[in-house]
Fold this sequence. Notes:
Strands 1, 2, 3, 4, 5, 6, 7, 8, 9 and 10 form a ten-stranded mixed beta sheet that branches. This protein is an alpha/beta fold. 26% of the residues lie in helices and 20% in strands.
Amino acid sequence: MSLTDFFSPINPDRFTPKQGFFTSQLGLKAHIYTESFPDFEEHTYDLAIFGVLDGRGAVNNEGTALAPDYFREKFYKLNEGAFSSRIADLGNIKHGATIADTYIAIKMVVSELVKKNIIPIIIGGGQDLTYGQYLGYEDLEQKVDLVVIDNQFDIGDDDHEGIATRSDCYLNKIFLHQPNYLFNFSNVGYQTYFVNQESLSVMDKLYFDVHRLGEFAQDITLTEPIIRNANMISFDMGAIRSADAAANANTTPNGFDGEEACRIARYAGMNDKLTSIGFYEFNPAYDNNGQTAFLLAQMVWYFVEGFYARKKDFPLTPKSQFMIYRTSLKDGSGEMIFVKSKKSDRWWMQVPYPSGQSKNERYHLVPCRYDDYQTAVNGEMPDLWWRTYQKLN
Length: 393
């Protein structure tokens, strides 16, 4: 089956301005499927945008299936930055006979694109489509680190049978999926009054990384090491405050502001490890002035800019590009090793595999902050090191 079989072309009238595009605008830079499907044999693409016209799983947010074309209307009017983009727009995946069919379509598209070293940028639908995005990694024989930007944990009661799920409980399907290839889950920006204490206890027992919105109130750069640990990212537009992104029926007064959302998207693009990203829960039915569509377009623009600013400095490249720091714990239980990139000043910590767990590697590298190194210098074990070590066992 060819990728073409999953997609319907886009009506150019939906995103082309009356006067046409200027030569600097992305509408003339990207290969957009209006008549001819992008040819992966003839052309090299780095990024592939596609829409999903299925909002059946979006709880209390009917209308998200309309998101892709409203996003395109704003995105392709933006000017290309200081980079030469190679973007394909594959068009839209129509909703399947059942929502499970839609998940399978997303799975097959994501899997094929990742195998081609092309990053899918998914414009949904409900956030339950993250499940289809995750399934795309099933045949890739690798563990997955999932980062979700959301104001709550979507692990509610799921009484659906089979593969179908909803946007308020799709994480259950991911956590319980067999075979299990999820290594770590991180939530960025949850708001405590939307989360029950039992859910927090579950996250703690699973050694997952969850971060309150307030942690980033004074410094959004603290999200960068968390984002840098992701293979795939799911961004719920409801995590942005209503003043900046009103086009979501579940939007709330608090959340990330528009500038912070764009910076998070740029960090995602800069992540050498990231191979797919989805932006979900944008509902044009509530976007009276088009502001949220504009913000989403700018977020994807910053993601693209971040991608073309990648440092390619994950600590597997020549050792001369890194500084190695060693510290000892107060209790004498061992040594901790940190790695700092000379190119970007970003930090990683080494967490050793238990004996016999990995034949090819002695340790697992985890993105971290300078503060984690300072904690270790003071003789204390960083919490991130301990949680990671527990997951490796």
